[in-house]
């Protein structure tokens, strides 16, 4: 099957040219209205008339199959429009096309749907507030009907649906009828109004539409499906739609053995009906299914509470807005925010509300709905950000002296969480992108090598967790499934924490979803239960030499299904990429052993870090944000992706912009060895989205196209200057992350075409300013400018890897100092609290001391903003490479470094005492472990190859050589 093919064996369907379908539809209607307006006034003999009429017919031919996948304007209305054009009734056609386009652009068909049945008039645009409120009160959606029907049968079905409508219905829906398997897949992908699919019995496989743009969805379709019996296609289609858009409610209507089908595929369909016997039941089921996703239990409870008369004899004078309404001085607060905010402010946990610390009512339901939406087994809300979520998960799962493998470039909350947990930290190095002063992600080979190092040292049993950021700030995304599979092959009981703070939106889109923690955990869990996988693993493991480290590193490892446990956690900054108030975050859990091994500890950690007075407005916004994910997340993320690609293309092709700016592509940020697909660019006019799909399916690392990193070195400005003085101060454009020569623009679900247009306009202005400034430079000024450009584009300092922990902090047990990377940041962190243990040294003195052979050991986290990850952690040796990088930084904000004093480091006396304490703890740990078995929790047998005596000798030798 070709890369990017329409439907593959895992059920994913191609999104090739998806952006072009939506844009083509919008631009097609604009062009149609424009051409018809000119044709309507041109005399019959005008030479321009025939050319424009040919163009109009071409647009109609292109739009006709596309319009068949939406309920509005519908096949009948569009057919009438086409007939008017063919009969040369161009004035009438122009009037109809103009009104249809107005309604499509404003989406007013979502409210004014009844006029679609009028024979005389087309719907007009909503203009009154009352009509807008009516539209909001009864949201509109569409139901896809997969069945081969005649035009009269389709009209009869639509009339039947409309007759069932009631004023008491919470929603309004219309139907889209498609006749084939292929058409159903296309409609699922391109129609964002769909909320339910009804698959009826007996329909053909092939689509009659042969529009080239649509056929790209279907190239390479498995011929075996076409030969399949018609009654088998319905269940298969349901499974494939569920893979593409799992949020849709699926219903099957069949004329064959309904009981047997229900037993086989019941988990895919919400209901299965026999023939035509339950019209009313099907209609009610559709309304109920959408209602379940629309329901926001906690938001509704809070809104109802705000309407109740309440006497407050409790905390919060602000509750019900009383302290504001009774004030002569702060009434402007209510004017600014509105009274509903304060009417809903309360510390009550009863009266229809709930307690975040012990939810039993609407909050409990809201979290269960969130778990459903994000594909988790359980979900927990947080009101103080993902920083707290990260600390909760680490504290719940990591015990003192457990070893945690963590990306050194992860968010600082993880580092502080590991301090609090007392973990032994083994920092992993991401691959560097020196030319852009940024890091990528941690290669799987490096992770495996680190695990093998612990195995060789006899301490693999203490490795508890792998903690990685997915996706990174710059948009690098892991192959999550592969990382977990290969790690579990070496250590079957590993726990994974995926920091998806910037990736919460990924669940909404079929391309992104496959690389999320929750989707990968579900897939991995099912795979490990599959007898076919057990056979595959048996064949793999037969004769495999686990002692041959090189072979282990070079092989795609498979975990043992009898030993591996799927224990996956993901933290989401919901407020960063979805709709939620600031600090609204979630913890998602897919842990097979949660009840037995984590629940109590998780509860205690949650209690430790969660406020007893959580903000209810934040919780309500999380509930509503979840609703949006389930009802329109797919549409919003696809549009976000489109906007990002449009922004990239505008800069790529603009003659002035490309002189100074360039958006980094996947080949710039993912080295060739991590791109198995060989894809260099994710989108082009010839192949559409095929490259994106191929790369995200196969490559070790992928790039999120919505993270648009712009190189700016050619302007002579560094990232910090460009961000603050140009974008923010002059033009009011907000961004977050910069490097020495790049700035990062992130589209999100709130981005608009107008915002993208404004950004392009600003970049053009900045480029013109640079042009004018350069043209006005003297010869000396030009040389200075060129030197600056050369420094920013060609002379980037190498990014330093993690140096090492000083031997005084190289573990609480002697094995931790025997050739492994782990260290005790907790001891170092708290040792620095006492000033008697520390001194300061400036950059120049530090360079001289290192050259003289002195070990300089950081007493603090040193974190430049940007990039926002620690260059140094407590207990880490300061290397010459780190000094070189620090000297080249252009940022003003460096936490843990005082320019007037320099680095805070441990003095020699403190290091000596710390080394003695470490040795004492090591001896105590060794005596306690001497009688312990070498294997724990199903660890592979090859892990235990050294004896306690050998470990003691090795550690003593290492200590002496280091000292």
Question: In words, what does this structure look like?
Answer:
This protein is α/β, with parallel strands linked by helices and 963 residues long. 48% of the residues lie in helices and 12% in strands. The strands form seven sheets. Strands 6-15-14-13-11-7-8-20 form an eight-stranded mixed beta sheet, sandwiched between helices. A five-stranded parallel beta sheet has the order 2-1-3-4-5, with helices on both faces. The radius of gyration is 31 Å and the shape is globular. The model is unreliable at 1-18, 116-126, 813-817 and 933-963 (pLDDT under 50).
List the helices and strands and how they pair.
Layout: H1 18-39, H2 47-67, H3 74-86, H4 90-106, H5 129-137, E1 140-146, H6 151-164, E2 172-178, H7 181-190, E3 194-199, H8 212-215, H9 223-226, H10 230-244, E4 249-254, H11 258-265, E5 271-274, H12 279-294, H13 297-307, H14 322-325, H15 331-337, H16 339-343, H17 362-374, E6 378-382, H18 385-397, E7 403-407, H19 412-421, E8 424-428, E9 432-433, E10 438-439, H20 444-457, E11 463-469, E12 476-478, H21 480-490, E13 495-499, H22 510-513, H23 517-529, H24 531-541, H25 549-554, E14 567-572, H26 574-577, E15 585-591, H27 594-609, H28 616-653, H29 657-660, E16 662-663, H30 666-669, H31 690-698, E17 701-703, E18 707-711, H32 719-731, E19 742-746, H33 753-775, H34 779-794, E20 822-823, H35 825-831, E21 838-841, H36 843-851, E22 863-865, H37 880-888, E23 893-895, E24 897-898, E25 902-906, H38 908-929, H39 948-962
Parallel strand pairs: 1-2, 1-3, 3-4, 4-5, 7-8, 7-11, 11-13, 13-14
Antiparallel strand pairs: 6-15, 8-20, 9-10, 12-17, 14-15, 16-18, 18-19, 21-25, 22-23, 24-25
Helix pairs in contact: 1-2, 1-4, 2-3, 3-4, 7-10, 13-17, 13-28, 17-28, 18-19, 18-27, 19-35, 20-21, 28-33
Domain Orn/Lys/Arg decarboxylases family 1 pyridoxal-P attachment site: 296-520, 565-753
GO molecular function: arginine decarboxylase activity
Organism: Variovorax soli
